[in-house]
Amino acid sequence: MAEPTQKEPGAAGYPGYGLPHEPGAGVPASAGAPFGGPPPEERRGALKALVALGGLAYAGAIAVPAASFIAGPAAGNAGSAGGRERWVRVGRLADLPPDEPRRLKVIGEERDAFTVAKDQMLGAIWVIREGEKIRAMSATCPHLGCGIELNGDKKTFNCPCHSSRFALSGAPETGPSPRPMDPLATRVVDGWVEVDYRRYRDGTAALEEIAG
Amino acid sequence: MSLGDWLNERIGYREPLRRLLDEPIPGGARIGYVWGGALALLLLVEAVTGALLMSAYAPSATTAWASVAHINFTLRAGWLIRGLHYFGAQALVILIAVHVAQIAIHGAYRAPREVGWFLKLGLLGVILGFAFTGNPLPWDQDGYWGTRVETGIMGAVPVVGPLTQELVVGGSSLGHMTLTRLYTLHVFVLPAVTALLLAASFALFRKHGFGAPHGANLTKADRLYPKQLGMILLAGAVVLVVLFDLAAIEHGAPLEAPADPVSDYNARPAWYFRPLFELRKFFPGSLELIATVGLPGVIGLYLALLPFIDRKPGPLRARLPALAPLFLIGLGAVGFLAKSYASDAKDEGFQRSQAQNAQRTARAMALFKQGVPPEGALAMLRNDPEIRGEDLYKKECASCHRLNDLGPPKDKQTAPDLTGFGTKAWALEVLRDPDADHLFGKTAFKEMMPSMVKPPADPEAAKMFTPMSAADQETIAAFLEAQARGERSAGTQGETLVRQRCTSCHRLDGKTDDEESAAPELRGWASVAWIEAQITNPGSGKAYPPAAMSKDLEGHMPAFEEKISANDRKVLAAWVHRRGRGEPAAAASAPEKKP
């Protein structure tokens, strides 16, 4: 044969369609039924199952790590303070007037995936000195995360986005907020007020801390 | 009606699928036919892992390295995804080379399959293009310097070179724009071209089928499914197992220290470009273009013309004249590849630079675990006391002082060797033989300090000389070592001995019998503060006295007060103190506590 590669019988759109010399030694009588596929011979059936299984295994070998990569939270991502204590110095005790809420910045180390930035503003908090007790609440609205402001009368807080109103205790009075303002633990060290700064999920009635 | 029937009625997928699966293979299924299919499977793996990597990669000169390190070391299964992508790319190079060679050996490029052959050559080019655009993306030393050299080669091409170079680099020097451009090519342009080439290849395969080799038994036939497809899957699975293995061994893929445009990096290309790298050595000067552009061009042209040269089917023997260059290219490539690695293995300078590079890489990884600053990975490395100290030492000190393997060759040093500076052994050596070549023998201070054990050359003085007892030497050296550690050792026997035996020239707490002497202060000798004072001004008296800066002392140490910033002097002093005494690198900066 001069052209061993030539196998197209004619102008048929697809090769292999009704080939004249189909029945070879290894393929018994399959040419008779070009659309019926090979006969249901057991050996071939097993081979087909094996190939299909192999294909699935091949796809799975990639798909499993892929799903793990996409869905997995960063293992060992120290980015968040998630669950751990993070005490941040926010101001001097002496600068806090009694019973009057003060808005203070929380400055600290911010991690985002692979970067760590020092001295970043992590958020804001409302701090009230009540006698010897220091009470702190996140200035982030538990509804959808806007910044909570103090009303002019200094008796209530207000979220400007969706008009949630809170008492000085943090309890919701009117508006859509599902829970009170998020309380934060405080302590006083050498005359400095420190806050264990944490973040919580928006929109839920229960407190759910979020990582980072 | 099943879902399959419903879909089939609308799009009619069953018939073409069956035709594909039942594609007859004249001559029967064979291993030789697996390469194209395995290549397609592997390209699919590359596409999937590539898309995953895109979801975490940040292409800019400040973030690329950190994001790749994040993928490889922090994200779950990130190492595996990156390892598969990295080693898969190298497997692609091998598979396409085998595929092309196989087609040539089968003569499966002959009419009417020439266009299919061109498509395969195009795929080869695109795969090398993926390598060229992908290797720099981590922006580590290897990737950066590889690109620096490759774009340099590009720029040297007559006429079109400079413009192409500028287009690829995105300016005149490598930076953010280089990464974004290479990235665009890598994740959009080249994949689009690949998809077109693959689609066209597949269509042509449907038209012509496999090209059976000469002498195949054409009375035998198999169908594509299941036997040939099974073979292809098996080949793909074998490749995948190897990739998993390599990724596990390497824990992902190699990542060197962040790209540093001013470092001394001994760049080597990826292994598949090594033959060209080696070839280049034979063409010095302006002849370089022959190796970088000329020969690859000729090879490409030969491959493209092969179907027209090798026209007559027949046994391999008969086709040898046409195929000889192909075999020569293959043998040459393997030979040069081996030669390149062999000569690097013997090259001490290269090995040393590799070792230094490995050290820097390890340091970068330790720092990465603490977090990368927003200024980027290079800033992280440069501001690290360990790396910064070494860089400063290399730049400012190493022209005179040796320290371990840094500095001038042993016979060329013009200042004391600082290896062991601050240790008891170093102090003992100075006591016994201060004018040894590696101490003060090659400096202006030669013959200033007498040996404590060797009699002086002057016979008169030699008569008076009594060598210092070994016990006293030990005591003094121990006192000095304690000073280097930062202890005062007040009231110790060592201090008493030093006051008796040394202060006729040396100072101790600034007190000496000879104010004109150029001998240094021994209190705090070789401590960080002492070294820092010496770097700042070697005539301040805090280390060496003003006499040590005298004009008569040719080649004395200069003051670095105005040359190195105060902070860098501190870093450098601490580094010399650490390294001289052979202490391990300081731990990566401990997390700072807020005041």
The strand line-up of the biggest sheet of chain A is: 2-3-4-9
Termini gap of chain B: 74 Å
Count up the helices of chain B.
22
Largest sheet of chain B: 2 strands, antiparallel
Mean pLDDT of chain A: 79
Q: CATH homologous superfamily of the largest domain in chain A - what is it?
A: Rieske [2Fe-2S] iron-sulphur domain
Q: Classify the secondary structure makeup of chain A into a structural class.
A: alpha+beta
The third-level CATH topology of the largest domain in chain A is Rieske Iron-sulfur Protein
CATH class of the largest domain in chain B: Mainly Alpha
Largest sheet of chain A: 4 strands, antiparallel
Structural classification of chain B: mainly alpha
Radius of gyration of chain A: 35 Å
- SSE run of chain A: HEEEEEEEEEEE
- Give start-end ranges of low-pLDDT stretches of chain A: 1-38, 75-81
What is the H/E string of chain B? HHEHHHHHHHEHHHHHHHHHHHHH
Number of helices of chain A: 1
How are the SSEs ordered, and which strands pair?
The complex is a heterodimer of chains A (212) and B (595).
Chain A: H1 42-71, E1 87-92, E2 102-112, E3 115-130, E4 133-138, E5 149-150, E6 156-158, E7 165-167, E8 172-174, E9 183-184, E10 186-189, E11 192-196
Antiparallel strand pairs in A: 1-11, 2-3, 3-4, 4-9, 5-6, 6-7, 7-8, 10-11
Chain B: H1 3-11, H2 14-21, E1 24-26, H3 34-54, H4 64-73, H5 78-106, H6 114-134, H7 141-156, H8 161-169, H9 176-208, E2 221-223, H10 224-250, H11 274-280, H12 288-309, H13 316-346, H14 348-370, H15 377-382, H16 385-397, H17 424-432, H18 459-464, H19 470-485, H20 493-501, H21 528-536, H22 566-580
